[in-house]
Amino acid sequence: MKPHLRFEDVACRRGGRLLFEGLSLALGPGEALHLTGPNGSGKSSLIRLAAGLLREESGRVERSELALADDGLALDRELPLRRALGFWGGAVGDAMNALDLARLAQVPVRLLSTGQVKRATLARVAASGAALWLLDEPLNGLDRDGVARLDALVAAHLARGGAVLAASHGPLGGSWAQLELGV
Amino acid sequence: MIGALIARDVRRTIGGAAWLPVGFFLVVATLVPFAVGPDPRLLERIAAGGLWIAALTAALLPIERLIEPDRANGVLDQLTIRGTSEEAVGAAKVAAHWLTFGPLLLIAALPGSFILGIAPSALGRTLVALTIGTPGLAALSVMVAALTAGLPRAGALAGVLLLPLAIPLLIFGAGAAGDPESGGLLLEAAVSLLLVAASPFVIGAAIRASRT
Questions:
Q1: A72: in domain
Q2: Looking at the predicted complex, does its ipTM rise above 0.90?
Q3: Distance from CA of B209 to the nearest CA of A (A)
Q4: Quick check: B81 contacting A, CB < 8 Å?
Q5: A38 occurs within a structural domain
Q6: Spatial separation of the C-alpha atoms in residues A164 and A176, rounded to whole Å
Q7: In whole angstroms, how far apart are CA B23 and each of A116, B19, B112?
Q8: B7 touches A: beta carbon within 8 Å
Q9: Residue B174 confidence (pLDDT)
Q10: Residue A13 lies in a domain
Q11: What global pTM score does this model have?
């Protein structure tokens, strides 16, 4: 089966500095990869490469339809959460329930706390219906309940044949392949 | 996605700062009689030029909110990920900006013309020239906004970039209002069309270049 994400001998250069080279990986349906590595080792750059937001210095990246959660909220701050998420479409109601956001549906985005904002970005990804999820530091700001809900969402996504690539310093629930950058 | 993006931008501006450039336009137009004195013949001669200078300075006001908030907030990234090209985003941004800038400016140009004592015979031509010029001015504003997005002191830089680039619009637009035989209207239309046609590509390239 065709992988959702494939890197072939990819090099990434940022600001004149070579972050990594000769990187090859493939993420097929049901596969999850946990990126680790010290600050500045290129985790976020790898995720933005995978998303197509950065150009690879050399090599090739192939990707299927994807969704990205990073520190960009991408929701209109003045709108109620439900409407703000609705702009991006998809199964918004289900995603909000899965992250326990339903009771915040009418609350303007600008009033949400850090953890609630993180849940909202994850809900945007969960609602998208994309096969490949790219999560950059998904645990930042989440409480224990939020982490458990994220783990459940990821498990369900993998069971449906999706793939997940996550960069995180914290431990992620479930079974993840590991890739350490900067070693 | 394009229609939704235009509708969103228009809704956000109408609910927010749409009247600010228009108010600024009228304030600048009001300054002209104070600066040059109340002589009606003198004012009549410079009225069209005064309106155009007011329009150019008013176009500077919204620049910092046209692209930068969506870049910083990740909206532009999410649009790209969902398969909307940066050029299409640029075209949508220009359309949405013109919708909230052009018509309001034209409405404000009526009291503005009155303040400057424009000749009745020139009023129609001035409004037509402004109508033709505002799409070009809107396109130029969004281009400059995209080029300066994320830079420090972007507001000041935008002024230094936009005003010189708007000189062709100013010359032909104010000229067309003054002399119907000058052919200024056609040249202004050509400049406006060029700016609008180039804007999606300039904005798209600027958005890509601003990614880090």
A1: yes
A2: yes
A3: 10
A4: yes
A5: no
A6: 9
A7: 38, 6, 10
A8: no
A9: 87
A10: no
A11: 0.92
Query: Is B74 an interface residue toward A (CB < 8 Å)?
Result: yes
With bands split at pLDDT 50, 70 and 90, how would you rate the model's confidence at A160?
very high
Q: How many domains does chain A have?
A: 1
| Residue recorded with tokens 């329009």 | B55
Q: Do A73 and B73 touch (CB under 8 A)?
A: yes
pLDDT tens, residue by residue, B129-154 = 999 999 999 999 999 999 999 999 99
Cα Rg of chain A, angstroms: 16
Compute the nearest-CA separation of A53 from chain B (Å).
7
Put simply, whether B8 touches A (Cβ < 8 Å) is yes
DSSP class of residue A162? -
Domain that holds residue A148: 68-178
CB count within 10 Å of CB B193 equals: 14
The residue count for chain A: 183
Which residue is it, tokens 């034209």?
B106
Looking at the predicted structure, is the pLDDT value of residue B121 above 90? no
All residues of chain A having their beta carbon less than 8 Å from the beta carbon of residue B96 are none
Q: Are B62 and B55 in contact (CB under 8 A)?
A: no
CATH number of residue A122's parent domain: 3.40.50.300
In a domain, A158, yes or no: yes
Q: Which residue has 């990819």 as its token pair?
A: A10
- Cα separation, B28 vs A165, in Å, equals 54
Place of tokens 């390239």: B205
The upper half-sphere exposure of residue B121, i.e. CA atoms within 13 Å in the direction of its Cβ, equals: 5
CA distance A158 to chain B (A): 21
